[in-house]
Design goal:
Elements: E1 4-8, E2 15-19, E3 25-28, H1 31-37, E4 42-48, E5 52-54, E6 60-65, E7 68-72, E8 79-84, E9 90-94, E10 109-110
Parallel strand pairs: 3-10
Antiparallel strand pairs: 1-2, 2-5, 3-4, 4-9, 6-7, 7-8, 8-9
Bound molecules: zinc ion (ZN) (2 copies).
One zinc ion is lined by residues 28, 30, 32-33, 42, 111.
Length: 120
């Protein structure tokens, strides 16, 4: 397997890469993920920031809460990343924006109490 993982947004404006490894992952059912993605939950992969880089254009930042920033393509809107102020050494990447999301199955569930009833 190639040990460099790549991903990016729908339109191709934002591309990123990082070194393949086993990283923490989770499906998040919180209301912020739901609203900002327009989907019932978001699957996240937490990568050490120093192993991660953007390859061409950087995404646009939006402050999504008092303790976090979200990043999305300002051309097509794809949610790309989330960085929490309490965890600045990691960048959380949307697994669904990876070129091969099937290689990163989410291993945990967070904010399960906020899950929509019809998802259960
Ligand atoms: Zn885009
Ligand atoms: Zn969330």
């Amino acid at each position: 397997m190639n040990n460099i993982v790549e991903g990016g947004c729908f339109c191709g404006s934002v591309r990123y890469s990082f070194k393949f490894d086993k990283y923490p992952s989770a499906n998040c059912y919180c209301s912020i993920c739901r609203r900002i993605s327009g989907a019932p939950f978001v699957s996240w992969l937490a990568i050490p920031s120093d192993l991660f880089k953007y390859l061409n254009n950087k995404p646009k930042k939006i402050k999504s809460s008092s303790h976090g920033n979200r990043f999305f393509c300002d051309e097509c809107g794809t949610p790309i990343a989330c960085v929490l102020e309490g965890d600045p050494k990691n960048i959380n990447i949307t697994i669904a924006s990876l070129d091969k999301p099937q290689e990163f199955e989410p291993k945990a569930k967070i904010f399960v109490d906020d899950m929509l009833d019809w998802l259960k």
